[in-house]
Description:
The chain is of the alpha/beta class and 264 residues long. Helix content is 35%, strand content 19%.
Amino acid sequence: MKPLAEFPAAARASIRGVLFDIDDTLTTAGRLTAHAYGAMERLQRAGLAAVPITGRPAGWCDHIARMWPVSGVVGENGAFYFRYDWTARRMVRRYVHDDTTRAVQRERLLQIGASIISGIPGAAIAADQAYRETDLAIDYCEDVPPLPLATAERIAAAMRARGLTAKVSSIHVNGWFGTYDKLAMTKTLMREVLAIDLDAALREYVFVGDSPNDAPMFAHFPHAVGVANVEAFAGRLDHEPAYITTAEAGAGFCEVVDALLSAR
């Protein structure tokens, strides 16, 4: 990972949008600071797209799509995107799986979650599970005393043994039925909402993240950036970002926005 300062100015000046994780990338110690929220607003005022790509639940994403200065949001690790149509005054929701499939899978996921946490002391079903439509989130670090990354990986292995796709974030281990990920739904959102072929425009977009579940995005974007706390996952990332900030979490996100806008 190169220092963000080595991101060429000409390349920064050509960026048309920023895609970013939320937990420990946009937020700091579980909070959205005024500085980080203001950075999203500055992107919007400058005419750049801002799109959160998160593992957080549908309930949160409804709020984010309505209330934040963003073009849309990908949630639950790629299970859907939401965007609010201000002209029609309605929420547009695009899912990988249909309503019936999601309902059946939710029941099975809760059973799997109960089985896993019964064998891993200290782990818990995530507090936001009630607002999820498609995945299982097991908390190893957010509202429980922090467990080692080795335990998070043990939880992920238990999910995979039960037929789930599993990813470790900075706070949760997420599992779901299917092979989709953040990248696949991001491409769908960009095509359907912004009329952008993301594969053809890769060098015009930046992705900012911090943890293993961001690895597909790190691999795909030549201008991917990790906030400094991504180093906590050294050796555990399938793919590393091209650049790394000097600051952690939300301050690192602001560092990226400053770098992009100063080049314009």
